[in-house]
Amino acid sequence: MFNSPVKVYLLSCALLISLPIDAAPETAPTDKLAIVNGKVITQQDYDDYSQRIKKAHAHSANPKIVLDELIQHELLQQDALKKKLDKHPEFTNRIKEMRSRLLVAMAMHDYLLQNPLNEADLKQEYDRQVGQIEVPNEYQVRHILVKTVAEAETLITELSNGKAFGELAKAKSIDPLSAKEEGKLGWMTDSQVEPEFSKALATLKKGQYTSKPVETKYGWHIIQLDDIRTVALPAFESVKDQLQSALQGQQMQAYVDSLKEQVGILSNLMTFGLSHYLHL
Q1: N or C: which end of the chain has fewer CB within 10 A?
Q2: Please, where are the H alpha helices in 115-164?
Q3: pLDDT of res. 136
């Protein structure tokens, strides 16, 4: 009944007396902006509604549009009350549901206000998580990719005779993108490449290339390690908001657990579930 969106237009100017928004340079919260069938829309109503629009859409709305919407809302509300829709079972059920959700939200909000997190709490959690991370290495890699092991062995011989890796990659590699860059693949972790490629990479020191061809599903590779570095972890400031959200989630779980301990909870869910399936 209440699910269909309705686009409402102002039908009768006789229903309201609209007052100019910019009648004075400053307005008090109680100043009247419109009167709809005797119901006053104040500056405070306007300000509150404007703030909700700004939060929802991240920008301010046109003042005239805001006031028109407030008037339309009041017209609809008055018409609904006139039709006694506030007595409709669906309405009363929705109100109960909204009240329940709002109370839950308010309880959580109040708990977090009473138990605020500080910078030290967040930094401690950051250090704890960083301490548990096994920081991977990043490798700056080149490769030459060919179709056969024989081609790869020939290229390794040329490299050992002093041929430049980049020149051979440009001339011989069948990987068109890296060939244009003298075989450069950029920075990568071992998890980003094939297992065989990663295994060979782990045996190299900076400046070395594989002395034997490495086979993957793409073909045969000669791999050169140009550089190695530790992956940079995100700075504390860049993840502070995520840390706060995570810790607040833990706070809320602890809050609910403490409430459970204070009262007796009788649940027939398991019994209901078993009996339900037994009668299927």
Answers
A1: C
A2: 119-132, 149-160
A3: 87
pLDDT over threshold 60, residue 24: no
| Distance from the Cα of residue 64 to its chain's centroid | 34
Supply the mean pLDDT for the chain: 86
Torsion, CA 266, CA 271, CA 276, CA 277, rounded to 10: 140
Q: What is the pLDDT of residue 27?
A: 60
C-alpha of 74 from chain center: 36
pLDDT digits (tens, 9 = 90+) for 127-175: 999 999 888 899 999 999 999 999 999 999 999 999 999 999 999 999 9
The answer to whether 70 and 45 have CB atoms below 8 angstroms apart is yes
Q: How many CB atoms lie within 10 A of CB 178?
A: 20
CB atoms within 10 A of CB 271: 9
Residue type, 263: V
The amino acid present at 197, given as its one-letter code, is F
- Distance between CA atoms of 6 and 80, rounded to whole angstroms? 13
**Strand pairing category for 184-188 and 214-216:** unpaired
For residues 224 and 39, what is the distance between their CA atoms, to the nearest angstrom? Answer: 79
pLDDT value of residue 3: 42
Contact 166, 182 (CB under 8 A): yes
* Structural tokens at position 240: 């502070």
Which two tokens mark 31?
A: 């100043």
